[in-house]
Every structure is written in C-alpha cells, then in structure tokens.
Design a protein that fits this description.
Radius of gyration: 20 Å
Number of domains: 1
Helix content: over 70%
Order of helices and strands: HHHHHHHHHHHHHHHHH
Largest sheet: none
Number of strands: 0
Distance between the termini: 50 Å
CATH class: Mainly Alpha
Oligomer: single chain
CATH topology: Growth Hormone, Chain: A
Number of helices: 17
Structural class: mainly alpha
C-alpha cells in the first residue's frame, strides 16, 4: 500500500506545516513513553525490588541505552530501504507491551526486558521523526526543525516526569504512573498508522537538487557511500560528524546519570517523591523549551560554538549538583543543565544534516544516534561503578570532567557546518 502523497513533494516548513506539526505531536508521545520512567523507576528498583548496589539499579538504563543505540543505527538503514513511515509504525508496535510489563513486573528482570523493548521502540520512532522532519524542511531550516522536534520530545519527558511523580506520591509507584504510557502508545500508533505520510520523496527531491559546498570541504562525501563508509566517516574520520558523535555520547552519558542517580541522591537528602518529580521534570523542561530558541539560533549563528558552550555549561551544572545540599540549589543546577543541553541537542542533529549528503543522511543520523544513545549505557555503567566505589557525588564529578573535555574536543576539532548568511572570510 502506497503512503506517498499524490501531489509532488515540496521542500520547506510552510508547504509541509500540517505533516510537520503532526510529527511534532507524534514525537511528544514518543517522549512521553520515556518520561513515564524518569521519576518512578529508580525509586521502584530501590523501594520495591530492594536493589542496593548502584550498578544493579542502573541496569535498566544500560540495557535501554544499548538497545536504543543499536536500533538507531538500523533505523536509518531501514528507513532508506523500506521508507520512513513503516519504521515509525514498527516502533510503536514494539512500545505497546512496555507500560503493561512495568505495571505487572514481579521481578527486576521484567523491568530489564521492558527497557530493552523501550530502547528498540525509541530508536525506531524518535530516529524516524528526526529524519522525516529533516526531509520535509530542506537545508535552510534544519536547526529550527530539530529544535521543534527535540522540544516536543523532551517537553513531554518533563511533563510526564512531573505527572508521574505526583501520581506516585498520591497513588503509589504502581500502576497509576504507567497508565499514561498505555495512552501514549495507543495514540502514537493510531496517528502514525492513519495520519502520517511518507517523506522519502522529499529526501529524493533534495538529493536531486543538492549543491556541493563551495569550499570543497565535503567533496569526498559523495552521494553513493556504502554503509561502512557512512559509519566510519560519521564516527571517526570526518571532523564535524565525528566531533558531533562524541559530544552526543557524552551528552547522553549526562542524561543517563541524571535519570538513574539524581532521584536517589535527592531521596537520600530527604526530599519527597513530589519534589523529586519536580526536579526530574525541571531539567528536561528547560531542555525542551530552550530548544525552541536554540535550534533556530543555530541557523543564524552557526553550530560549533553553541555546542561547545552547551557542553561547558552542562559541566558547571553537574559540579553544582555534586556540591548542592538543598532543593533550591539543585533546582538552579537542574535548570542550568537543561539550558546547556538545549544548546547542544538540536544543534548536533542539525550539524549532521548540514554535512551528510541527502542520499545517506538517514544512515548518518542513525550512526550519530548510535553513538549518542550509547551514552546512556556508558553513563549507567560508569556512574554505577564509580558510585559503588566512591559514592554518588564522586560519580557526578567524574561525568562533569568528561563533559568539559568533550566541549574542548568540539572547540578544537569541529569546524563550522552552517555559517550565517552574511558574507564572511573563508574558514582556514
């Protein structure tokens, strides 16, 4: 059955505003599926399943990160081969059992399996909404498109984290918080099946009209790279793509730390579940709303220094969380962490879109997201091991130092991928 629109595709936000808006809504539902776990699951592991070792408690993030990272890579390849819409629908089908398993889990192993499924689902759905929005808007508005996409996703993470915190405080850790996930999965599957249209034709249109960069920097990145060449260029060889990949990994290493250890740190300080939920929501809320601004600004100001500054701001925020002892200090630090992430998150995706040829852009996005979401697994393992050995605050300081170094790598190695429209002297 064909899902391609009958009229010829046109690039740009305005001619595609209806489908773009629909995909923003779909990605908000994707974010909500993730947000149902942010406040409740670390507390569930500690209070219901009796997990005391930090490494064991973070195991759900580790398997989520591995599953999502691997699926991100294959999502790009699959969407090039079969189309974007089928991959999106497959992702929602995988999501359906997740909230039910979390509600009925008799042991922590059920939670682990549920998070493998959640990682696969997130890899398929979130990756595909990213690629579809890039397809629709064309080259001029990528930063804005990614800002809207990530704002919707992480705004929903924040709202759901806040809602589940209050539901858990009022009605217990199960089942009330996860009933939201059932509703999100049903809505996401319905919209993706019945209303979303295929966008691969837009990518083909852009590929047919693609103009090489005048400075010749990307001449080796032609339109017929193999999967292996796309992987090696994005991961290691091409300076901007590989710098973005390492920064993405470290960014989500931070997020894995925040997801898994912050609720435990705050609970140990005597905060209520409601206040923990508020802190768990504040960070992605600032992150989500901030991307409405930062994505568009990167189209005007360029990508490189926004990424470097965002990584350094995250490092400072993590240090403040490690030093903090009160709700007020942690709230300020959580807002700073969200602001730093907002500078980085849509800008990294836009820089990938700047450099990658439309013919293999979906695979480049998939490779980047492989590394980025691999950060969840690295963060869970690193934070768990350091926390078990030296304590939670030592784990936070360790990640803060890695984040500062990552920003330095961007500052030294990455070049500007999207210079402002006004003429300026060529890059060296």
């Amino acid at each position: 059955m064909s899902t391609t629109a009958t009229r010829p595709p046109r690039l740009g936000l305005r001619p595609n505003i209806a489908q773009f808006t629909l995909l923003v809504v779909v990605n908000a539902l994707v974010g909500g599926m993730l947000g149902q776990e942010r406040t409740v699951l670390p507390l569930l592991g500690e209070q219901v399943f009796g997990l005391r070792a930090y490494t064991a408690g973070l195991s759900f993030i580790l398997v989520f990160g591995v599953a999502k990272a691997a699926t991100n890579y294959f999502a790009g390849t699959l969407s090039d081969r079969f189309g974007r819409k089928p991959v999106l629908v497959w992702g929602w089908l995988v999501a359906i059992p997740v909230p039910l398993m979390l509600i009925w889990a008799p042991s922590w192993s059920w939670v682990i399996v549920a998070n493998v499924l959640l990682g696969i689902s997130q890899g398929l759905t979130w990756s595909t909404t990213v690629v579809m929005k890039i397809d629709l808007v064309g080259p001029a508005r990528r930063g804005l498109a990614m800002g809207l996409n990530e704002a919707a996703g992480y705004g929903a993470v924040a709202v759901t984290a806040l809602a589940t915190g209050y539901l858990a405080e009022s009605y217990g850790l199960r089942p009330a918080p996860f009933l939201l996930g059932i509703a999100f999965a049903a809505l996401g599957l319905g919209l993706s099946t019945l209303a979303v249209r295929e966008t691969r034709g837009h990518a083909r249109l852009e590929a047919a009209t693609h103009v090489a960069h005048a400075d010749g920097r990307h001449d080796h990145l032609h339109d017929n790279l193999t999967n292996r060449e796309v992987f090696t260029q994005t991961s290691f060889h091409e300076p901007a793509l590989s710098s973005a990949s390492q920064a993405g990994l470290v960014n989500n290493l931070n997020d894995g730390l925040a997801w898994g250890l912050f609720p435990i740190l705050f609970a140990a300080a005597g905060l209520s579940v409601g206040k923990i939920g508020l802190l768990a929501a504040l960070y992605p809320a600032v992150w989500g709303v901030g991307q409405l601004i930062t994505g568009a600004l990167s189209d005007r100001w360029g990508r490189k220094w926004m990424i470097a500054a965002g990584m350094w701001l995250q490092a400072i925020a993590l240090g403040l969380i490690a030093l903090g002892e009160s709700f007020a200090v942690w709230a300020v630090a959580a807002a700073m962490l969200g602001a730093g992430t907002a500078l980085v998150y849509p800008t990294l995706l836009a820089s990938i879109g700047d450099v990658a040829h439309p013919a293999w852009r979906a695979r480049a996005v998939g490779t980047y997201r492989l590394w980025r979401d691999g950060g969840f697994a690295v963060g869970a393992l690193l934070a768990g091991v350091v926390a078990d050995a030296l304590g939670v605050r030592a784990a936070i300081w360790t990640v803060a130092a890695l984040t500062a170094v990552s920003g330095l790598v961007v500052a030294v190695r990455m070049y500007e991928t999207h210079a402002p429209e006004t003429p300026r002297s060529p890059h060296p």
